[in-house]
């Protein structure tokens, strides 16, 4: 692993564990096994490093979600595929959920991260496009987008507090809610 990749991986872990404010570049560099010139050469600063990590995480998610929804035209099939993708992403790397869940708060609290809202906004844009392109959506795309983003952020919160098996159970329960199968209707 080259110096840049090692710093990105270490930063991803440290930011996911400690958050932007509590993380230190010293800790990142120690974990990466490199020195501050590597960090400054590739990222310029702690903020630049965080934004690079956030960019990579959002890109990974977008690739996974794009693959998940391709070939589906119904809203429920697309949402089901996105839920399946969230399980895969969390299983592959739990830092993904931690970073995406915390990113909007970190960006709001730290002015030097302001451009991070553009990166997070790409996820919102993706979901809105997915809603708009679904052939059977009963809501306005903007309303459906807010609902889906709320579900995804809620699942992200669950992913950082539960083990993988429990997370999969929560995703299954959310799928039941979305499909309207959460309660038995009277006969």
TrEMBL record:
<keyword id="KW-0238">DNA-binding</keyword>
<feature type="domain" description="HTH tetR-type">
    <location>
        <begin position="1"/>
        <end position="61"/>
    </location>
</feature>
<feature type="DNA-binding region" description="H-T-H motif">
    <location>
        <begin position="24"/>
        <end position="43"/>
    </location>
</feature>
<dbReference type="InterPro" id="IPR009057">
    <property type="entry name" value="Homeodomain-like_sf"/>
</dbReference>
<dbReference type="InterPro" id="IPR050109">
    <property type="entry name" value="HTH-type_TetR-like_transc_reg"/>
</dbReference>
<dbReference type="GO" id="GO:0000976">
    <property type="term" value="F:transcription cis-regulatory region binding"/>
</dbReference>
<dbReference type="Pfam" id="PF00440">
    <property type="entry name" value="TetR_N"/>
</dbReference>
<keyword id="KW-0805">Transcription regulation</keyword>
<dbReference type="GO" id="GO:0003700">
    <property type="term" value="F:DNA-binding transcription factor activity"/>
</dbReference>
<dbReference type="InterPro" id="IPR001647">
    <property type="entry name" value="HTH_TetR"/>
</dbReference>
<keyword id="KW-0804">Transcription</keyword>
<protein>
    <submittedName>
        <fullName>TetR/AcrR family transcriptional regulator</fullName>
    </submittedName>
</protein>
